[in-house]
Amino acid sequence: MIVESTAADYAALLTNCAPRGYQLADSAIAPPEVIEMLANVAATVREHFTPASWLIVEDDEIVGLCSITRPPVEGVIDIGYGVAPSRQGRGAATRAIRDIVAWASTQPEVAGITAETSISNPASQRVLAANGFSRIGERLDEEDGQLICWHCPT
Questions:
Q1: DSSP-derived 3-state class of residue 10
Q2: Over the stretch 81-115, which tens digit does the pLDDT of each residue have?
Q3: How far apart are CA 84 and CA 115, in angstroms?
Q4: Average pLDDT, stretch 109-124?
Q5: Number of domains the chain contains
Q6: Angle, to 10 degrees, between the axis of helix 92-105 and the axis of helix 122-130?
Q7: What is the per-residue burial (b if ≥16 Cβ within 10 Å, else e) of 75-89?
Q8: Based on the number of CB atoms within 10 Å of its own CB, is 71 exposed (0-12), middle (13-18) or buried (19 or more)?
Q9: What is the distance between the alpha carbons of residues 52 and 67, in angstroms, rounded to a whole number?
């Protein structure tokens, strides 16, 4: 399930504490510098659009995060997500993205969702394809290398 996250949730995660009485997976969702970057992105997006990010929760355990990566452009939100390594391959990302797509389809201001995956990440590609995303192209990112661009109408 997805739970809208707050600045307090990120602050707790940065101290390796589970917010709201949840538990943490036995491997970190992301390194502290990535959590801090995601908190900053969520704060920026939150100035223009909410929700800005979600906790991915399975059986009262925070196993990942999903974020809108920038303020929406012409009704399109761009998402990124990650799951703790010890919880990957169990369907949590697929279920979370399904919940995001379902939520977005009820939001009149959201016309679509985009996402990007590494060409070397077939698991993430399967998550998006399973949730109605179509491959719309590729691009080269200076930091992340070759990426596949995806789109899902709402």
A1: helix
A2: 999 999 999 999 999 999 999 999 999 999 999 99
A3: 19
A4: 97
A5: 1
A6: 40
A7: ebbbbbbbbbeebbe
A8: middle
A9: 6
51: preceding bond cis by omega (within 30 degrees): yes
Give the model's pLDDT for residue 127: 98
CATH number at residue 90: 3.40.630.30
**Which of 86, 81, 125, 131 lies closest to 104, judged by CA?**
131
Please name every residue paired with 54 in a beta bridge, in sequence order, or none if there are none: 4, 66
Two tokens at 131? 């949730």
Q: Are 69 and 116 in contact (CB under 8 A)?
A: no
Q: What is the pTM of this model?
A: 0.94
19-72 pLDDT, tens digit per residue, is 999 999 998 999 999 999 999 999 999 999 999 999 999 999 999 999 999 999
Amino acid identity of 135?
R
Element (H, E) at 140: strand 134-141
Q: Where do the H-state alpha helices sit in the chain?
A: 7-14, 32-46, 92-105, 122-130
Distance separating alpha carbons of residues 104 and 62, to the nearest angstrom? 22
Q: What kind and span of H or E run contains 49?
A: none
Report the alpha-carbon distance of residue 97 to residue 78 in Å, rounded: 12
